Amino acid sequence: MSETQRDTRVEAAISHWAPRFVANGVPLADFEEVTAAVTRWEDWCAAWSARAAIHEGLALQALTEGCKLSAGEHFTRAAVCYHFGKFLFVNDMEQMKRAHAKAVECRNWALPYLRPPGERVAIAYEGTQLFGNLRRPAGGAKAPVVVMCMGLDSAKEEMDDYENRFLKRGLATLAFDGPGQGEAEYDFALCPEFERPVKAVIDYVESRNDVDAARVGIWGVSLGGYFAPRAAACEPRIKACVALSGAFQRRSSFEGRPSISFEAFRVRCHCASLDEAGKVAQRMTLQDVAKNIRCPIYIVAGSMDPLTPPSEGEKLAAEVSGPCVLSVIEGGNHVVNNLWYRYRDQTADWMARQLGVAPV
Length: 360
Known about the structure:
Elements: H1 8-23, H2 28-37, H3 44-64, H4 68-86, H5 93-110, E1 118-125, E2 128-135, E3 143-149, H6 160-167, E4 172-176, H7 195-206, E5 211-221, H8 224-234, E6 238-244, H9 259-268, H10 274-282, E7 297-302, H11 310-319, E8 324-329, H12 344-354
Parallel strand pairs: 3-4, 3-5, 5-6, 6-7, 7-8
Antiparallel strand pairs: 1-2, 2-4
């Protein structure tokens, strides 16, 4: 099959998410080689899983040689490659679940070997559990915590780069899979009222004696860029919020979005039809809610974002009641992954200041 005959779903994945893959840990050569070889969407997950297995093998070899730091880094790359194999692959749930289980397994293997190391945590929620990765900065002090909210197709296994930027500045991170996300996507539907799982996460933070539960920030990416402000509006324990490319109001229509994205939204809403999923989308709104955001908030939007136009961030900025930074980055795509250097360090510095940590 020629380049012009490539599956439109593969084309959408490449054109919309190429910078994200690389910025979040996929080696550029891997991205180029894997995507060049895939012409059918049905082959996407298997191709990425095969590449992930190479990194996993390197990790296991490093462990046999006693090279734990290298093992952690190899396992992390394996996890993110498995993750991007499954991230929108809802057309084959069994294959998706296998790749997902490997992503979780590899990141769990990596956690104790990272610098600083991480810990898998279970958070009580509605009679069962949500899972997260908690990492604390070096030094042993009770650090403030940044609760990290995933998007529609992201998961905690994709968060290494973001985590490290906070950790280097003296902030702990707790990246978790909420309802409809990552490990929780099978048992729970996406939850527009995201203050509910965030309350459970902060309750968990308060149960620990090795982090500072009086200084909790929240961060969210893509759909998480809606979830985080939603939680900040309803949860007074949140002291600062970062929202990356989140919608002020999701449309009930899926027109203009890649089919692989709106099908993933339907599946993760546990809906039988797009009409049903559209009703869930209508509940994802900050209208009459954003005014309750009184903590400082930093909003990032890309001027060229085809999925969440910057007007969504502008609406949020106009409604909040507390201090607000609005950064619309010229030329930025969705989550501005193509120009990540324009906001990742900046938002980490800002969050550190808001949570009382001196600049480093």
